[in-house]
Amino acid sequence: MVTQITRGIKISVLTTFEGTYFKNHKMHFAFSYHISIENHSKDSVQLLARHWEIFDALNDIEVVDGEGVIGKKPVLKPGETHTYSSGCLLCSPFGTMQGHFNMINFTSTRAFKVIVPAFRLSAPFALN
Predict the structure, then answer these.
(1) ApaG domain location, by residue (predicted)?
(2) Which residues contact 2 (CB under 8 A, 6 or more apart)?
């Protein structure tokens, strides 16, 4: 598990290899990731958007931007936690993801970014 705290918001990420399958005559490697967002600040905040950079071992890079996470824009009061799971496909058995969440602080009305640290996606059989 990787963790990082930005402006009182703690992000923790745990990944799981889900398996392989063929699509369009090509092998794909499926991974899930489980993210916990903990508000350790004294202010209520809301997650508005996400930005992901997904890298695989073949030097392919996919950038994903969108509103919220899995269709939600959670509000976190001080001490609250929001968790969710999602996934991605790679064309190689290992890679990384990193990014950030765009959030707003309700007390100051200021927008800020919370860093999601780089985390590894790796199929167990690909490690030596």
Answers:
(1) 3-128
(2) 12, 13, 117, 118, 119
State mean pLDDT over 51-58.
94
Q: Which of 125, 122, 128 is nearest to 30 (CA)?
A: 122
What are 61-116's pLDDT values in tens digits?
999 999 999 999 999 999 999 999 999 999 999 999 999 999 999 999 999 999 99
Cβ(43)–Cβ(25) under 8 Å?
no
Instruction: State the residue for tokens 């890298």.
Output: 55
3-state secondary structure of 123: coil
Question: What are the residues facing 112 on neighbouring strands?
Answer: 103
Walk me through the domains of the chain, giving residue ranges and CATH numbers. 2-126 (2.60.40.1470)
